[in-house]
Amino acid sequence: MSDKGEPRTFDPNFKGPVVNRSCTDVLCFIIFILFIIGYIILGLIAWVNGDPRRVAYPTDSQGHFCGQKGTPNENKSILFYFNLFSCTSPSVMVNLQCPTTQICVSKCPEKFLTYVETQLLYKKDKNSWTYYSQFCKSPFSKSDRTLSQILMDDNCPAAIFPSKPFLQRCFPDFSTKNGTLTVGNKTMFEDGKGKTRNAGELRAAANHINKILDAKSLGTKLFEDYATTWYWILTGLIITMLLSWIFLILLRFTAGFLFWVFMSGVIGVIGYGIWHCYKEYNNLRGQENSHLTIYDIGIQTDISMYLQLRQTWLAFMIILCILEALVILMLIFLRNRIRISIALLKEGSKAIRYVPTTLIYPVLTFIFLSICICYWAVIAVYLATSGVPIYKIIAPAGQCEHENKTCDPEIFNTTEISKACPGSQCIFAFYGGKSVYHQYIPTLQTFNLFVFLWLINFVFALGQCTLAGAFASYYWALEKPEDIPPYPLFTAFGRAIRYHTGSLAFGSLILALIQMFRIVLEYLDKRLKVLGTRECKTCWLSGPGEVGTISRAAAPESQNNISKFLQCCLKCCFWCLEKAVKFLNRNAYVMIAIHGKNFCRSAKDAFNLLIRNVLKVAVMDKVTDFVLILGKMLVTGCIGVLAFLLFTERLPILIEGPSLNYYWVPLLTVVIGSYLIAHGFFSVYAMCIDTLFICFCEDLERNDGSTEKPYFITPTLHGILNKKQLVPQKQKE
């Protein structure tokens, strides 16, 4: 018995959550406050040194913002590249910069024009030069310079092509005409240097411009879909909120009936999905290319291509059939335990009926989380944009020994480096500096992330402790609702803030440390993969005379496998540890809300109490969670099915759905949003049942059901969870 702690004894003065309590874990409270003060100071420092305009506005080769108000570039909000063909340089992927001059312009070129053509046409048509000169560094009154002088001074581009702005940058205006790629309705054009180019070369020269254009097309279509369906999405989320509220209210009266409605709804939704997948699978029979596999078509940005394959619908159908079978088997083998879950749901319904304000608390949690997330994101942006412009040398051929070194654009053309590396450019790279502050920006970003995790976990801990205090006040009221204290939710919230901020900070600190370790492991894993890739490339680029390098690189392959195995073990261990700590913290907060002890004492008491009632825990915990998950699935599934029928225009009789490029875009938004809303409401129920169970276990230890020591639990629930005879008592159900 000593290993499981001493059971609670009868205390005639115990009437529920302790009123006279003192502050707990004061040291952790002080550390928490110091971290918050440091977090505020970090925000002020980042605000003084950072400039988010560096993210909002593109930057030219001189480090000047395009489109920034109060500057010469105020009306020039688009970035223009002098020579996109130079973007094929290997340095582009390393430095994430195209080795060509970049200037700010008010609009992108709309026609083909070369510098040589402007010279020939200058006497007849000066407008061509006027139009061309707006894409030069500085305007010229007359095009009297030779092409070689222009290219050497890097004042103007050799040629301009029809372009359109995308992400505030000029990209070639590609289009397809009769299956042929064109630029401005041309397939062949002059590059201004005496060469004839085609649209395919320009597309390849723009450094994976194909992917950029696909992303452009995809992004535009997604934006159009959201612009068309935003009010439908908002309506669906509001209906989800109302539906979740209605289900929780109905659980007060018909928990058993609604449970079977939940089950029927889930089985029905999955069954409809199986039928729909089979229908689509059957309809694609015999259609062209429908027999291809996902491996054949590879990774595509157009999701609809996958939906044209029979294999996709077959995979969906198999997954749904397995899920349907699992649900039915769980119903068969857990039918007796479901009765216990239903009884707890009914008791939880009564608690929420007497403390209805608890259903509003998820809104407060959402507000707190939004503040934390926004503050973290703002600080991260300001830290990332701190510093002065840093310029680096970039060579088109990627063979300059001075490449990637810092430089000064004002004097670069007069240095020996420009002569030693012909065609090299001194181009803006990023913002930084050599001060102590700039050197410690990565450390400050880490601190920002850690405090963010701490605050997020503290918000969840505060919510759990507050709800536990409110529901504990309900349970330990002998005469319900007469003995329930007024405003139990606000009272519990005040107690948690006033007395137990240190304890909540202690528990959330442990979780934040574990999560930080997991993030560090993920970061190290990605870094090792990148380094491994680079080593592999180095081996194959070493040349035929250095074949031994490959064998030597292959030698540590076994060590790499061992390190990967250890990393997987560490990830698994920390994941399990996080889940275990969350479970212990949740029950510790319940004990804190009831008895007002410090975190360690409360966690120990909660753990011992659960160990002494381990069989009841096994019966109640996961089964009840399963019931609540079914509720979330049903609410989300109902809204998801309605959204699917609407966005795929399958309800023409009732309502005309919108015409969309990708119906899955608003559909996924509605489904994910519906699940998050349902999770917020049902999490109140989950905390209610956990609190009632802890109180019930303690009630059984403190009391024996006699007149002198009456149980606080209702007789109905006691009869289900415990086989002892209950002495009648005056208690309203």
Report on the structure:
By secondary structure, the chain is mainly alpha-helical. It contains 23 helices and 12 strands. It has helices at residues 26-49, 53-56, 91-95, 115-121, 126-133, 147-153, 199-205, 209-283, 294-297, 310-333, 335-354, 361-384, 416-420, 436-439, 441-475, 488-499, 501-540, 547-554, 557-595, 599-612, 614-647, 664-702, 715-721; strands spanning 78-81, 102-105, 113-114, 159-160, 163-166, 169-172, 174-177, 180-183, 188-190, 196-198, 388-394, 425-432. The strands form 6 sheets. A two-stranded antiparallel sheet has the order 1-2. A two-stranded antiparallel sheet has the order 3-4. A two-stranded antiparallel ribbon has the order 5-6. The longest helix has 75 residues, at 209-283. The relative contact order is 0.11.
What's the SSE blueprint?
Blueprint: H1 26-49, H2 53-56, E1 78-81, H3 91-95, E2 102-105, E3 113-114, H4 115-121, H5 126-133, H6 147-153, E4 159-160, E5 163-166, E6 169-172, E7 174-177, E8 180-183, E9 188-190, E10 196-198, H7 199-205, H8 209-283, H9 294-297, H10 310-333, H11 335-354, H12 361-384, E11 388-394, H13 416-420, E12 425-432, H14 436-439, H15 441-475, H16 488-499, H17 501-540, H18 547-554, H19 557-595, H20 599-612, H21 614-647, H22 664-702, H23 715-721
Antiparallel strand pairs: 1-2, 3-4, 5-6, 7-8, 9-10, 11-12
